[in-house]
Amino acid sequence: MSRSSLRREEREKKTRKINDSSKTLIFEEMYSFVSDPGTNNKYQKSHKEEEERQSKHMCSLSGISSNMWWQKCKAVLGQSFNLEGIISTAAVVTRDRHLAIPHITVPDISWIDWVELERRGFRGVIFDKDNTLTAPYSLALSPPLVPSLERCRSVFGENIAIFSNSAGLYQYDVDGAKATSIEKSLGIRVLRHGTKKPAGTAEEIEKDFGYATSLLVMVGDRHFTDIVYGNRNGFLTILTEPISTSAEPFIVKQVRKMETCLVNYWCRRGLKPSGHNLLLEAMQCVKDPSTL
């Protein structure tokens, strides 16, 4: 064999050896990644942590969604179901029937003579919202009531507010979003409170207005909530007829009928409302809207 042939064979052997070594290294690296317990555990741990993170994220989203759903349900159910109202109704029916009788009854607020009320010493007005100023769940003031509300505003200035079981109640309007929407729409501030009418005192209202309740007027459409609350706390109480009952829940309609039947029956039997020092004759503050 020639010397050149020997050299060529040696070069080929070296090349095959280098290739075999490279393959061995590559195989060992791949094998070590798969089989090495430390590296494998790190990979599995990282993968498991990622799965747990995604799972927690999904649970968090689910929890937020469930919480929002529950808050909405509580708000809707809360307006239809009033535990404090049920307890108060039992007390009114059995022993405090006079609390459900308003000092003044009118078809709507346009019949109220705001100037005469102010002349007699009253210094502020608190309105219920649903079916007193607006249709149920609406943000728009009932059009026929616009002139009367403007007269009220011109007489009492900033001393008017809304006190409602559907907005401003901490339990169902946690962030005050409903109250803020109403304030923007109607231009009347909404009082925040922690207890549904007719339960609770009027201490916060007195602090807010700076007057005793005997100098304030409570206007609403429900005997056993607005009127009972107002009479129990010393307001002058004015009952209006509901603006519209078509959008009210069935249970609210039935309770309203029951309230009206009971109050009408008690009045036929001679029951009178509690007296008020500033207003001996209720009709003196009631006028036909066409004359105002």
From TrEMBL:
Residues 1-21, 34-54 are annotated as: Disordered. Coiled coil: none annotated. Residues 1-20 have a biased composition (Basic and acidic residues). One of its GO terms (cellular component) is cytoplasm. One of its GO terms (molecular function) is phosphatidylglycerophosphatase activity. InterPro entries: HAD-like_sf, HAD-SF_hydro_IIIA, HAD_sf, PGP_Pase, PGPP1/Gep4. This is Uncharacterized protein. The lineage of its organism: Eukaryota, Viridiplantae, Streptophyta, Embryophyta, Tracheophyta.
